[in-house]
Write a structure and sequence with these properties.
- The structure is a single chain.
- This protein has 709 residues and is of the alpha/beta class.
- The chain contains 23 helices and 16 strands.
- The strands form 3 sheets. The chain has an 8-stranded mixed barrel with strand order 8-9-11-12-13-14-15-16, surrounded by 5 helices.
- Helix 9 packs across helix 10.
- The chain is rod-shaped, with a radius of gyration of 64 Å.
- The two termini are 117 Å apart.
């Protein structure tokens, strides 16, 4: 029924909403205009009738009333004639004639104005009775003039009184008819007003019904389609893009429906693209970390194992062969991993791609032991799939994966925790240079300990808890001390002594090493300022990390410390590792030139352990070369090593460098180095690192030449 009604509406009404609304408003407005015009016209008619009533009917009534008054007046004049003398009768006759004349005029006037038949007939009778009445009082006048009193009285009683009575009755009848005519007119006016009220009420009711009908039609043709549009928009908002709006006969709604359908398709396509971007890796097409977390958000992780795989040497490939080659390696590695895990379709395996060259694989079996066995088989299968090198253009690249594995347990709250545990295991494998590692509580404890260690290191620097120990450097020619190497030590208030081998590399990884370097620099410069008068020739060398060589503001900080404590620049030395310089030699040389321009001395530490180029070595603005301890251990017992050290010493001298060997612990090592032409030594044989009173005592025993400078 609704469809039939809707179809009828669509056929009867225009297709455009604007036309339908205009038609509705026009119909309602026309009704109101009609009511207004009809009311005005009717009021004008009533007003006109009222005017006619005032001008005609009331005037006629007044005339009839005057007629009655004139009759009464003429009767009163007759009474006066009976008692009047001859002289006084003449005015009475004139008055009666005037009344008679006026009565005739009124009758004549009324006869032309009366339209009602009853009134005209009554007026004719009135005219006849008036003539009879006039004849009767004329007869009365004759008897009075003849002085016949009895005859006059008889005429009055037999003729005048009945004629007068009949005349008055007809006059009263005419007056009643006139009043009835007025009442009739009033009834007609009231009837017209009542009819007008009914018409206005009927038209108003019709307008209301028409408005309701138009509203109903508008609701069907406008509101309902808009409601459909609203519901479809809500479906779109909820992610349902399957429902499409059917075409309608309403032009605007049809256009909006079509636009909404187009928007639905476009939003669906874009959402699919966004979902692809949000949940899938664009390079490999694998699900990403977000997708993995969402998939296992509410799943039980019992017996689940997480494997995090990281491609070794991907950074080197990107830097050497370009990121395009690195992407090719990632795609091919992904393909091989997928091929390796395909046979395990029944093991609830899900493979995902994390950032960079990392992959994640979650798997599960019926028990923890089965899951561990599955992990071992998967790792073996993946490694076997990666045995063959990957061909990238003209390059053949070997790819190795490092695996971090974590097995869910009772403390694994969610997948994020499981992923974190696997990543901790991965970092542990990298630190041990192993191909794989399983997560353990000890790794977590170590990680938390390192986090606490960083916080404690910040507090140690702020609270001046670090210590600077100095190890002397001794010239071989005269066994004199010309300087010291500054070594940082940390006596933790709760953990006790913490080895530099533990916290210095950690500070470098955490990016906090420059704070340690700044502390050591300031401590060394303050010490040199204290020695300014007693030991003006002694120098202190501070070790500089690779991170410090990346900081372009580092030379400014060195210059600021020297200026702040008024220290001679050549008393301060900086020792830089060979590997740190060769990480980015061009930038390192620029920064070393800036440091050298401040007047300080520069040394290459641990020489021989890195991969420095002689071409770069001759460009370095350094003044000292330190031979690493690995070359001088039992030097006196190895001829080949002696030849190598001799070559290093001669090369250093050829470059005008002062050569010092570190880690000397025996007399034989010192003697051999003296014979090979080495300039100085440093190590336990000369002195252990010194601090506090031990350092003060050692300095007091220096030759006087050092004191005097």
């Amino acid at each position: 029924m609704k469809n039939v009604y809707q179809s009828l509406i669509d056929r009867c009404l225009p297709s455009r909403i604007s036309y339908r609304l205009a038609l509705s408003y026009l119909a309602i407005l026309s009704l109101f205009i009609f009511v207004t015009v009809r009311s005005v016209v009717h009021v004008q008619e009533v007003s006109k009738r009222s005017q006619e009533f005032a001008n005609q009917d009331l005037q006629k009534l007044l005339q009839v009333q005057n007629l009655a008054l004139d009759i009464e007046g003429s009767t009163s004049a007759l009474v006066l004639i009976f008692n009047a003398t001859q002289e006084k009768r003449k005015p009475a006759y004139d008055a009666i004639d005037a009344k008679k004349k006026h009565i005739d005029e009124l009758i004549q006037q009324l006869s032309t104005e009366f339209e009602d038949e009853a009134q005209r007939l009554c007026l004719e009778k009135l005219s006849i009775t008036h003539q009879q009445y006039r004849q009767s009082y004329l007869n009365l006048f004759d008897e009075i003039e003849l002085e016949h009193a009895l005859g006059a009285k008889q005429v009055f009683e037999t003729q005048v009184a009945p004629a007068r009575e009949q005349f008055l009755n007809e006059s009263n009848t005419l007056l009643v008819l006139a009043k009835q005519r007025i009442q009739l007119r009033q009834e007609e006016v009231r009837s017209d007003l009542a009819r007008l009220k009914l018409e206005i009420l009927a038209i108003s009711i019709l307008a209301v019904l028409l408005g309701i009908g138009l509203a109903f039609m508008t609701q069907h043709s406008v509101v309902q389609p808009l409601r459909m549009l609203e519901l479809n928009a809500l479906r779109i908002a909820s992610g349902d893009y399957s429902h499409k709006l059917p075409p309608t006969n309403t032009a605007e709604i049809s256009q909006v429906s079509q636009a909404l359908n187009i928007m639905t398709d476009a939003v669906a396509v874009r959402e699919a693209e966004i979902k692809q971007l949000a949940y899938f890796d664009q390079l490999s097409g694998l699900p990403n970390r977000t997708h993995l977390l969402k998939k296992y958000e509410h799943q039980d992780l019992q017996h689940h194992a997480m494997i995090i795989m990281d491609m070794a040497r991907l950074k080197i490939v990107n830097e050497t062969l370009g990121f395009g080659t690195g992407d090719t390696l990632i795609v091919e590695t992904c393909r091989r991993i997928q091929h390796a895990v395909n046979p395990y379709v029944d093991a609830r395996i899900f493979l995902a791609k994390f950032s960079g060259g990392q992959f994640a694989l979650i798997c599960a079996e019926k028990s923890d032991s089965d899951s561990k066995g599955l992990v071992q088989r998967l790792i073996e299968g993946i490694n076997h799939a990666l045995n063959l090198p990957i061909q990238c253009n003209s390059y053949s690249v070997d790819i190795n994966l490092v695996f971090g594995v974590a097995l869910a347990n009772a403390e694994t709250k969610n997948l994020t925790t499981l992923i974190r545990n696997a990543e901790i295991a991965l970092y542990a494998a990298k630190e041990r240079t192993a191909s794989s590692a399983w997560y353990s509580d000890a790794q977590e404890a170590s990680r938390l300990s390192h986090l606490s260690l960083l916080s404690d290191l910040r507090a140690a620097i702020q609270n001046d808890e670090l210590q600077m120990w100095l190890q002397p450097k001794i010239r071989l020619c005269d066994q004199s001390c010309y300087g010291f190497e500054a070594l940082v030590r940390w006596q933790h208030p709760r953990r006790g002594f913490i080895s530099p081998a533990e916290f210095v590399p950690f500070a470098e990884r955490a990016g906090y090493i420059h704070h340690v370097t700044n502390w050591m620099l300031e401590k060394a410069v303050k010490t040199l300022a204290q020695w300014r008068d007693r030991y003006p020739t002694l120098s202190i060398a501070v070790n500089v990390s690779t991170n410090d060589l990346r900081d372009h503001h580092f030379p400014d900080r060195v210059r600021q410390f020297l200026h702040q404590y008024q220290v001679t620049p050549n008393n301060l030395h900086l020792e830089l590792t060979e590997s740190g310089i060769m990480e980015n030699p061009e930038n390192a040389i620029t920064l070393l030139d800036m440091l050298r321009n401040t007047g300080i001395g520069l040394s290459i530490d641990d020489f021989g352990t890195g991969h420095s180029s002689l071409a770069y070595l001759q460009k370095l603005p350094v003044s000292e070369l330190k031979i690493d301890r690995s070359f001088v251990i039992n030097l006196d017992q190895h001829d080949a090593t002696q030849k190598l050290v001799k070559t290093i010493i001669d090369m250093g001298h050829g470059l005008d460098l002062h050569v010092i060997a570190e880690g000397i612990e025996t007399q034989e090592e010192r003697t051999t180095l003296t014979d090979l032409g080495c300039d100085a030594i440093q190590g336990y044989f000369a002195s252990k690192p010194l601090h506090g009173s031990a350092l003060d005592t050692w300095l007091e025993n220096l030759p006087r030449s050092v004191h005097r400078g």
